[in-house]
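#struct-pred

JT: dropping the chains for the assembly here, can someone run the whole complex?
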Amino acid sequence: MSDTMNSAANPAVRNGVDTATLFATLDAVKGNPEIAKFQFRATNTWISGTHNRSTIHGFYGAMQEMEHREARSFDADHPAVLVGSDNGPTPVEFLLHALAACLTAGIANIAAARGVNLTSVSSTVEGDIDLMGILGLDRTGTVRNGFQEIRATFTLAGDDDGQLEQVVRQSMARSAVFDVLTNGVPVSIDVATAAA
Amino acid sequence: MSDTMNSAANPAVRNGVDTATLFATLDAVKGNPEIAKFQFRATNTWISGTHNRSTIHGFYGAMQEMEHREARSFDADHPAVLVGSDNGPTPVEFLLHALAACLTAGIANIAAARGVNLTSVSSTVEGDIDLMGILGLDRTGTVRNGFQEIRATFTLAGDDDGQLEQVVRQSMARSAVFDVLTNGVPVSIDVATAAA
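RK: done, full complex below.
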């Protein structure tokens, strides 16, 4: 998204991306890096068994408290085969959604910044997991709790076929979720308890 | 979930967890580790700009192709301040949801296995991100693309206050999402392109 552009090559909106506002935003951040400091949040409430629900609404950014247009809630659960009630996807499936969504958003932005018109972007993401890990049944010490590997396949069509793969590679190089999933992130957890 | 239990201490259902089925599942997996090999999937389609949608339905597990009770779709987008149309949470917010959901599901299962009755579990998860990274504006080489840190706070109430914190710690120790986020996972991406 930092590519140098000229207005002749860039209409105001390309791929549904408001490139004029995008470049104005980049200029604003260059002028005041405090604008770029964001904090995102989710709150979760247990419902029953492995079924629980997160709500996503407020966040901090551009030096102020902000809110999404509406509060949105997402259920998660385990399927019956994993002794849940299947009231939502499993938590790990949301990681796959997050990866696909982040790379796709980046593809649209980067293609727009580079003057490439996209006609379609689709992807499938799959992750392998051996539940011997989370079930505490691995006696070999070799089975991790999480995904062993994630694989994604992207299919793109656009008016500059020769640039499309590079757009995906640049999206990977600038994706927040790809970074977190491949490199990990420090996670700290506090616990407050009370007798019922 | 590998705690040794006896049936007297465990009613069939505790915390909404079918403990009898849970222990039977553990026994089945012990008898045939192939049952534990799962693959989860998401498919994503670009809509416009940073707006895209994932669908989660089929998965592989217990040595067969399976499906969730229904196909479920989730939109992701960037908010207006990040030059999107705010048709859904940002991709990184789904990572926070996944973490809260995975730890909460584990808390319910582990508490049930240990004979602890829960009355409430809630959590807030927040992640700090400096967008100088993904915007390609960091010239110091020190700003990553993803979250710099994730912090969660869990609040639990139950009938055995003294055990609740240990239940959370055990959930962290056996959480698929906590493992992926803290340790990272190999991600490979294939790209197929076509002229429009």
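JT: nice. The longest helix of chain A spans residues 91-113. The helical segments of chain A are 19-31, 91-113, 161-173, 176-183.
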